[in-house]
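Example record used in the benchmark description.
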Amino acid sequence: MSGIICGWLTVQLAGADTASPTFSLRVFKYPMTNTPLVFRLTVNSAGVSKTDTAVVTPVPDQVAMGTAKWKLGDFRVTGTSSAVGGIITVHRGTLAGVAMGQAPVTAAVAPATGGVFDARTKSTVAPFNTNPGTAWIESTLGGMAGPFSVSAG
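Model output (structure tokens):
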């Protein structure tokens, strides 16, 4: 067996012919959820069939906003993540709101741990010409946070 199909999701097995195959499961972006997925695996060998069920629960990074500031021509959101390497997307008002910027999560300066991000957009074109009021963030590693008040200044 080289892949597992779970409804609309297909994952590829690494080491499919070994006693301990593995696979990677991506986390999902809003409006999808990172709820547990149930997989059923059946192995047939020498006329014997064995079936097992496994529940896989994605573990998203933990993200938080530290500041969110807006002034005409400059919108900036900073924060932290429990993991380095993701990309943060900042949304206006809700997770379904307009994307207002993105930033990579880079390693925090020691002695801090985890990662930090600084999403900054300089523009006077809509939607940047008015204060969004609140912001939400989501990470490509599954974390999300909000609402967070955007201050003027």
